[in-house]
From TrEMBL:
<feature type="transmembrane region" description="Helical">
    <location>
        <begin position="48"/>
        <end position="78"/>
    </location>
</feature>
<feature type="transmembrane region" description="Helical">
    <location>
        <begin position="220"/>
        <end position="240"/>
    </location>
</feature>
<keyword id="KW-1133">Transmembrane helix</keyword>
<keyword id="KW-0472">Membrane</keyword>
<feature type="transmembrane region" description="Helical">
    <location>
        <begin position="179"/>
        <end position="199"/>
    </location>
</feature>
<dbReference type="Pfam" id="PF01148">
    <property type="entry name" value="CTP_transf_1"/>
</dbReference>
<dbReference type="GO" id="GO:0005886">
    <property type="term" value="C:plasma membrane"/>
</dbReference>
<feature type="transmembrane region" description="Helical">
    <location>
        <begin position="114"/>
        <end position="136"/>
    </location>
</feature>
<dbReference type="GO" id="GO:0009273">
    <property type="term" value="P:peptidoglycan-based cell wall biogenesis"/>
</dbReference>
<protein>
    <submittedName>
        <fullName>Phosphatidate cytidylyltransferase</fullName>
        <ecNumber>2.7.7.41</ecNumber>
    </submittedName>
</protein>
<dbReference type="GO" id="GO:0004605">
    <property type="term" value="F:phosphatidate cytidylyltransferase activity"/>
</dbReference>
<keyword id="KW-0808">Transferase</keyword>
<feature type="transmembrane region" description="Helical">
    <location>
        <begin position="148"/>
        <end position="167"/>
    </location>
</feature>
<keyword id="KW-0812">Transmembrane</keyword>
<feature type="transmembrane region" description="Helical">
    <location>
        <begin position="246"/>
        <end position="265"/>
    </location>
</feature>
<keyword id="KW-0548">Nucleotidyltransferase</keyword>
Length: 310
């Protein structure tokens, strides 16, 4: 019914099989260790089903559906950011213009206007917002407030919008199509989180940034980097136009930048003395908790791919 490129179709099947396996393992654990509470694990897996289901449906239906989905994710992330980071009462009217950046940025994605897409927020929005703040006339806390609003728009709109712009790039790998690029980026980023967690649990001894994230270890970080780099080397040529050698580099880039994105958002939460950025996604926390690594991997992977192939 839908024309899904074969490599992307098989990649989707693999993801669904992994989810089925995780669900089966959770049911077995709940049966074998009935005395333990697996509620959080159940919520976490159920949320994955919903997130992946919605993503796959939007990717398969049309590019427009996918663009609307990621625009909505940017909206939720920006709203969540402003809900946890204090802003001045005087900036309420400025926040309106920050939100207005979302439809414009994603419209530029939809028409494939790369030249304006890449400068709209870093140039035009970043100049417009302080100008609007000046017109309000409140100077106390001006620099602090401008920094917060700029950074929020950069992380939640500009960075995330790079994911969906992958759907607008010319198709160079016919067997994977444009969907393959998105699946590769999302899968490797999330798989990186899992690998660093598992390696850290198995071998973790030396803490890497204890003041920011006490559970992060050098062993977990390096294990994740090696695993993701190798897996990317073999998966990259299957889902992207990258060769084996450049797929290794893409994996290295995703694993390192994903770790940085994770600890950067952790630093924000520690500064604010909160555990999660929200409670929208059961078992995961908020949108920022789920997208922390993606915020950094998306633009870096996009520009690496763009530089190497377009």
């Amino acid at each position: 019914m839908w024309d899904i490129p074969p490599h992307s179709f098989y990649a989707m099947l693999v993801v669904l099989v992994l989810l089925l396996t995780a669900t089966a393992c959770r049911l077995i654990l709940a049966h074998v260790k009935a005395e333990k509470d697996f509620t959080e694990l159940r919520h976490r897996i159920q949320s994955w089903w919903w997130m992946i289901g919605i993503l796959f449906v939007c990717l398969v239906v049309s590019h427009t559906a996918a663009i609307i989905l990621f625009a909505f994710i940017s909206f939720l992330a920006l709203k969540e950011f402003f809900s946890i980071v204090p802003t001045r009462q005087a900036d309420r009217r400025v926040l309106f213009w920050a939100y207005m950046a979302i439809p414009v940025q994603y419209y530029l994605v939809s028409i494939g206007w790369y030249g304006l897409f890449i400068v709209f927020i870093p140039v035009y929005v970043f100049l417009l917002l302080p100008m609007r703040m000046v017109l309000i006339g409140e100077t106390k806390g001006f620099i602090h407030s401008a920094g917060i609003i700029h950074w929020a728009v950069m992380l939640t709109v500009f960075c995330i919008s790079h994911i969906v712009y992958l759907l607008m790039l010319p198709v160079l790998n016919l067997d994977a199509g444009r969907i393959g690029l998105v699946i590769f980026l999302l899968f490797m980023t999330q798989f990186n989180d899992v690998c660093q967690y598992i390696w850290g649990k198995l071998l973790g001894r030396h803490k890497i940034i204890p003041k920011v994230s006490p559970n992060k270890t050098w062993e977990g970080f390096l294990g994740g980097v090696l695993t993701i780099t190798l897996v990317s080397g073999f998966l990259g040529p299957y889902l992207t136009p990258l060769t084996f050698r450049f797929s290794l580099l893409a994996g290295l880039l995703i694993s390192v930048s994903g770790f940085i994105g994770d600890v950067v958002i952790s630093s924000i939460k520690r500064d604010l003395e909160i555990k999660d950025s929200g409670s929208l996604i059961p078992g995961h926390g908020g949108i920022l908790d789920r997208c922390d690594s993606l915020i950094f991997t998306s633009p870096l992977f996009f520009h690496f791919l763009y530089y190497m192939n377009y």
